[in-house]
Amino acid sequence: MNSDFYCAEVISGKTLVTKIVETESVLAFQHTRPAYPVHIVVIPKQHVESLVMLDLTDTSLLYEMLQMIQNIATIVLAAHGACRVITNLGTYQESKHLHWHIVSGERITEPANLH
After folding, report:
1. CA gap 28, 52 in Å, rounded
2. Which pLDDT value is given to residue 72?
């Protein structure tokens, strides 16, 4: 799959999401098909294919994303006692748009597509 669900659906507004935090450059929202009791996704609003596709000009975007991820993970950790912060690459990355999952709890389903 070479699609970009986040640009095509979320950022465009075609798929409505429950926003957690939003800035001019970064969006955190509840996953549209959660696989964990807590399942939050953090994306840049500009298209970046993956973590390894970032370049030196993306330093401020990466820093802003990591600040948001850190803040959300801190809240999830305090509320649930544990969490994971995950980004996928290569064939593990179904949606070709940089994104992180912040998850907590045991996997509740085997979704067809984690985006």
Report:
1. 20
2. 98
Question: Which are the contacts of 99, defined by CB distance < 8 A and separation ≥ 6?
Answer: 6, 41, 42, 43, 87, 115
**What predicted TM-score, i.e. pTM, was given to this entire model?**
0.90
Dihedral (CA of 72, 73, 74, 79) sign = positive
Domains and CATH numbers, the chain: 5-103 (3.30.428.10)
Average pLDDT over residues 30-59: 94
Strand order in the sheet with 38-44: 19-22, 26-30, 38-44, 100-104, 84-86
CA distances, 36 to each of 46, 53, 82 (Å): 26, 28, 12
The angle subtended at Cα 91 by Cα 43 and Cα 5, nearest 5°, is 35
Residue 89 tokens, joined = 């690459």
Distance of CA 98 to the CA centre of its chain: 7
Residues 81-108: tens digit of each pLDDT:
999 999 999 999 989 999 999 999 999 8
Confidence of residue 56 (pLDDT cuts 50, 70, 90): confident
